Amino acid sequence: MPVVRGCNLPDDLFYDVPNNLWYRPEGDGTYTAGMTMIATGMAGQLVAFTGKKAGKTIEAGKSCATVESGKWVGPAKLGFTAEIVEVNSALVDDPKLANSDTYGAGWMVRIKPADQGDADAILTPGAAVAAPYEAKMAADEFAGCA
To answer: Considering the entire predicted model, what is its pTM?
Structure first.
């Protein structure tokens, strides 16, 4: 598993580095998506999570959810157009799951890409994500995960 500045990035996932999201292919054409450990490290402890409704199509670069922490409120943006299949109701009820179980129970949404080729074009495999994340963290002046 790549570890960049103390942040774990499981190599069985795919990453949208510019948007700090991870994606797990589910084998049925859908992905489970969530915030990376880097995103939660930068945001701090989450206090609210509001996902868009299931059935809604989200255009590339638009928000699939709004995330709020003690120091930040903002969108979780998809890098490709996709339909929301499911929203994690457990995360709505307990936003801290994104911090405590980032790559498990803290997932945000399940999505189905409108065009798999568009998804493939922006997703970086976990085994190849260390260098892009090191560059992004340097550019963002983020020291790393505690």
So the answer is: 0.95
